[in-house]
Design a protein that fits this description.
By secondary structure, the protein is an all-alpha fold. It has one domain. It is built from 5 helices and no strands. 71% of the residues lie in helices and 0% in strands.
């Protein structure tokens, strides 16, 4: 992909592509049975989405992700955040 495509995405979302790529990399190699890793990812997604994730919702997301394990995908977090 070319740089202008990524610049357009950055200007529309306000999220630097480096952060998006870092998150994608973290998700790709994450151990979704490790609560600490899952919490870090949930917090990062909330931050990138500019959404406040209250502790009770974070706990619910973490439990759901850990219980689903490898079947987890980004749409799960987006649905739970109400996007």
């Amino acid at each position: 992909m070319n740089d202008s495509f990524f610049r357009k995405i950055e200007s529309k979302t306000g999220v630097p592509m480096e952060e998006v790529f870092a998150l994608a990399n973290a998700i790709q190699y994450a151990d979704f049975s490790d609560e600490r890793q899952v919490r870090k990812i949930v917090k990062k997604v909330g931050k990138l989405a500019n959404k406040d994730v209250p502790p009770h919702l974070e706990d619910e997301l973490v439990r759901s992700i850990i219980s689903s394990g490898s079947s987890f995908n980004m749409n799960d977090i987006q649905k739970m955040l109400g996007n």
